Amino acid sequence: MADRIPIIAPDLGATESPRVSAWLVEVGETVRAGDRVVELLLPGVTVDVAAPVSGRLSEATVPLNSAICAGQKLGTIEQDDDV
Q1: pTM for the whole structure
Q2: Sheet (strand 4-8) strand order
Q3: Which tens digits make up the pLDDT trace of 34-54?
Q4: Is the pLDDT of residue 83 over 70?
Q5: Of 74, 35, 73, 64, which Cα lies nearest the Cα of 52?
Q6: What is the DSSP code (8-state) at residue 67?
Q7: Which residues does residue 41 pair with via DSSP β-bridges, in sequence order?
Q8: Do 10 and 73 meet the contact criterion of CB atoms below 8 Å apart?
Q9: Cα–Cα dist 77/2, whole Å
Q10: Residue 15 φ/ψ region, left for φ over 0, alpha for ψ in the -120 to 50 degree band, beta for the rest
């Protein structure tokens, strides 16, 4: 079974909670480590969160427009080093 690696929200040091503004890949799509997978929105700023490993996006835990906090799990990637 492939390792399931969480996609974790970074600490943006913001006073307001960022929101998930877009999932840039669909569940089931393959990604490479460093690919942009989710976009977070703060007033006036957009931040992309990258895939921590190569594999397949198996879960998008947080729905669009949901507020998130630093360290929160946003989704899961099933690791595959052959991607």
Answers
A1: 0.90
A2: 4-8, 73-79, 55-60, 30-31
A3: 999 999 999 889 999 999 999
A4: no
A5: 35
A6: B
A7: 19, 46
A8: no
A9: 9
A10: alpha
